[in-house]
Write a structure and sequence with these properties.
CATH topology: TIM Barrel
Strand content: 15-25%
Helix content: 10-25%
Number of strands: 11
Number of helices: 7
Radius of gyration: 19 Å
Number of domains: 1
CATH architecture: Alpha-Beta Barrel
Strand order of the largest sheet: 1-2-3-4-6-9-10-11
CATH superfamily: Glycosidases
Structural class: alpha/beta
Distance between the termini: 17 Å
Shape: globular
Length: 302
């Protein structure tokens, strides 16, 4: 299990005593992810019934949500009338990077010769007991399938996609894709060498993420920057803009920050708590997801 903290907005000089409003428990359905996605572009025509993940910044820049008309949620999110003192979040880490329900109506392909359903697909049945569900994957953007969004909304649960940057071959170097995005560049090739200025600078990517959330019908994103960041002030400003636009355009919008880099110097160093080294990222988001290794001692120093 992991912890999620919902803190009141506070001035950096006010300290952290008394900032906790709610303590939320997060249940994680994590399975080992061994994603080996090919590098080719996978944007499909509107006639396709199969949804693909966005595997890199190159694909995100070119992604046209209108090409996926069959994958839009049909059930609008409606906030529950009963308020809870503490909220519960489930984070489903999709196994082995597999899109379990890539068809618009679930597991079936609508092909009469292909109507088998594997028995080991993940199922979640406690929707009435949770408040936020995260569809997590180790791709640049993991979009929840419409069947998941619909069932969440029927129970008054918010559904979040994932934006993630990882660079495990060199964790001390500045994240290449994250830097391209925050610099407001678009790339013409997957090697990221041929770059040009994006329309609207780095806001181009924030607006693209808002467009995707609106089109598919989910409420927001878990933001996971597990790479070194060259200029954290730029990232903080970008997050604030993304949150602003999400709340302007999406009902029940939620932007959740994952405990990863430090705002003090941009190094990748998980804190397992909300503290003086990472709180500025939370201040421009709606919620905070601690690293996996939190414990009661971490809560005492939060």
């Amino acid at each position: 299990m992991k912890s999620r903290f919902d803190f009141s907005s506070a001035n950096s000089n006010d300290g952290f005593v008394g900032m906790i409003k709610n303590f939320h428990i997060i249940l994680n359905s994590e399975k080992e992810d061994v994603c080996d996605a090919p590098a080719k572009v996978s944007c499909v025509a509107s006639s396709s019934d199969e949804l693909f993940f966005i595997r890199n910044l190159f694909e995100l820049a070119k992604f046209d949500a209108a090409n996926y008309s069959l994958h839009k949620s049909r059930v609008a999110y409606s906030e529950r009338q009963t308020k809870k003192e503490r909220k519960v979040v489930v984070c489903h880490d999709i196994p082995a990077g597999i899109n379990e329900e890539k068809r618009s109506q679930g597991l079936y392909s609508h092909d009469r010769n292909d109507c088998t359903v594997e028995q080991n697909h993940y199922r979640f049945t406690n929707w009435d007991n949770i408040d936020i569900f995260i569809y997590f994957g180790h791709y640049t953007v993991t979009i929840p399938p419409p069947s998941w969004i619909d069932i969440a909304h029927k129970h008054g649960v918010k559904m979040l996609a994932t934006l993630i940057f990882e660079q495990w071959d060199d964790t001390k170097a500045v994240g290449k894709e994250a830097k391209v995005m925050l610099d407001g560049k678009v790339v013409a090739r997957l090697d990221f060498e041929d770059k040009k200025d994006a329309k609207d600078g780095n806001k181009f990517y924030a607006l693209k993420l808002v467009e995707i959330a609106k089109h598919f019908g989910f409420e927001g994103y878990l933001i996971n920057f597990e790479v070194v960041i060259e200029d954290t002030a730029v990232l903080i400003e970008w997050l604030a803009f993304l949150r602003q636009k999400l709340h302007e355009e999406v009902k029940g919008a939620e932007l959740m920050w994952y405990d990863s880099v430090l705002h003090t110097d941009g190094t990748l160093k998980w804190q397992s708590a909300l503290n003086e080294k990472n709180y500025k990222f939370f201040e421009v988001c709606d919620s905070f997801f601690t690293d996996y290794h939190w414990g009661l001692d971490n809560l005492k120093v939060t």
